[in-house]
Every structure is written in C-alpha cells, then in structure tokens.
Specification:
Structural class: alpha+beta
Distance between the termini: 81 Å
Largest sheet: 9 strands, mixed
Number of strands: 11
Strand content: 15-25%
C-alpha cells in the first residue's frame, strides 16, 4: 500500500521543478538526508539575444514547495535560515491551475535583528504585508510568525514574453535580499525595502545595539580615507570646512568614549596632517574653488 498524499506531494514537486526550470537551473537534494529545509536550489538565467540563443547564470535562491498556503512550522529550520546566504522562498503549487506562487521570506534577517533567533518560528504565506514589520510575536522564546508576501505566479501556459517581466522582478528581489543578508552579516542593520533605494528599515534591537557605535567609526574611517584620497589625487574636491565637521565629530566621540581613542578604524586621521600641509603649500593656481576657505593654520590632529 502507498499513501496517496505522498504521491500528490511528489506530483506537486515535479510541477514546481518544471515551472522553475523555465527560467533557472534547478538542483535538488538527492536523498532525504540532504533535505535540510529547501526542496530546490535555483540559479536564475538570462536568455541572450544571440544566434543561437544562449543562457547566462545570474543569481541563486532556495525554495521549499508546498501544496497549500497554510502556515508552516519552521522550528527546527531556524539555524538553517540564519546561516543560509541566498534568498529563501516558499512555493505553493496548484496542480489544477498548473501554477506556482512564489512567496518571499526576505525579512528574516530583519526579524532576527529585532528578536534574535526564535525558539519557535512559523512562516505564513500572505498576499501582502507591512514591509516595516512583517513579523508577529512577543519574544523569541514565545515564538515568531514571519509573513512571507506574494511576489509573482508562474504558470505552465505563459509564453516567454509573459515570463520575462516576472523573472526580472524576481531577480531584482534576489539582489536586494542578498544585499540585506550582507547587511545582517555585517551587523549594520539598515535594510533596503525597495529596488530604487528610496525606502529603508532601520532596525534597533538585540543585534544593532551591540554594533552601532563601531559602525559609526567605520563610516568615519571611510570619510577620512576619502579626504586623504582627495588631497593626494584631486585636491579640487577637498573642502577643509567639510573635513573639520567630520574631525570635530570624531574628537567629540573620542572625548566621550576615551577607550576608542586609538580605534583601528579612525587612527588613520593622523596621516592627513602632512598631506594638509602639502596641499596648502601648492601654488594658488592649483588651489581650486575651495582655496578661499583653506585655513593656513590647520588644527592639530
């Protein structure tokens, strides 16, 4: 005897495999022991307008396929999602309509930045959700529900022209999700919510609170290295007044937190002093539009 539900689940996976293979290279765990949380690993490809047409790989994602849109228990997959460094999706198959609905779990990194890793986790496919707070729950201990919003639907009947805009949408989402995963890994916690970089979610919580000070020093270090670059390579871009704003901010931080005085991120500021002097000794013709603002007695660093 053989359970029919097992058979229908297998049929759903076969349909999903076919629909995914129309726009991606599809890999599947070969044994049950290899199935750690995703049914398929896909690499989206682009069809080049060449003769003959060629395909080129773009970006990858993982997906778990289900036969309905019910809430899914993911309690034992939290570590898997946490360490996964590609986007994760839920796929819901409708065999009657021969379609696959894709739902995104892109907000998982933001959720863990707020709560930490939850003891219990549910993933819930929804048509749309609040992008600022797409999760529900009181604490990591009690359990969290992550709302996974609908991205697009692929059907067996659609042609290549109908497929292209959906694949482009999925590709953009994958790239944004990858960037947000990197943000979580770097413990910076400013997450992009759209493809135009106009909407962001700034997450404060158990992750961010331990790193935001160090992140400020990293940004200051980036600024000081660029000031050095401008003085060395393109003095016309250097603005002493602007530099002093950054310097004053840095010195105020050091005064408040003396233990950061010799931070590896900002100690390079001392390298600017000889460069400053060299820039000021240059003939007036090299001075640029900021020459009237260059102070002949730069402050000590």
């Amino acid at each position: 005897m053989h359970l029919y539900t097992v058979r229908t689940g297998w049929e759903g996976e076969r349909l999903a495999h076919y629909l995914l293979s129309r726009f991606s290279f599809v890999a599947q765990p070969t044994t049950i022991a290899d199935d750690v949380g995703s049914d398929f690993y896909c690499t989206i490809f682009d069809i080049l307008d060449s003769k003959p047409p060629m395909v080129e790989p773009r970006t990858s994602f993982a997906i778990q396929v289900k036969s309905n849109a019910d809430k899914i228990e993911f309690h034992n997959k939290v570590q898997y999602l946490h360490h996964l460094e590609i986007p994760f999706f839920l796929g819901v198959v409708d065999q009657t309509a021969a379609e696959l609905k894709i739902y995104s779990a892109e907000c998982f990194p933001m959720m863990t930045a707020v709560y930490g890793l939850p003891k219990k986790l549910w993933l819930r496919p929804v048509e749309e959700c609040n992008p600022i707070r797409p999760y529900e729950g009181l604490s990591a201990q009690a359990g969290i529900t992550l709302n996974c919003y609908h991205v697009c639907t692929f059907t067996a009947s659609e042609g290549r022209d109908e497929l292209r805009p959906k694949v482009a949408q999925l590709l953009k989402l994958c790239r944004r999700t990858l960037a947000n995963i990197g943000t979580r890994r770097a413990e910076e916690h400013i997450y992009q919510l759209d493809d135009d970089a106009k909407r962001f979610s700034i997450v404060a919580g158990c992750g961010s609170v331990n790193y935001f000070r160090d992140n400020i020093y990293k940004r200051l270090a980036e600024a000081f290295y660029n000031f050095e670059y401008m003085l060395n390579r393109d003095p016309v871009l250097f603005d002493l007044a602007e530099f002093r704003i950054y310097e004053a901010f840095h010195l105020a931080l050091v005064a408040t937190r003396p233990e950061n005085r010799f931070s590896s991120h900002t100690r390079g500021i001392s390298k600017l002093r000889p460069l400053w002097k060299a820039a000021i000794r240059r003939p007036a013709v090299e001075s640029n539009r900021y020459s009237d603002r260059l102070d002949r007695n730069p402050p000590a660093i």
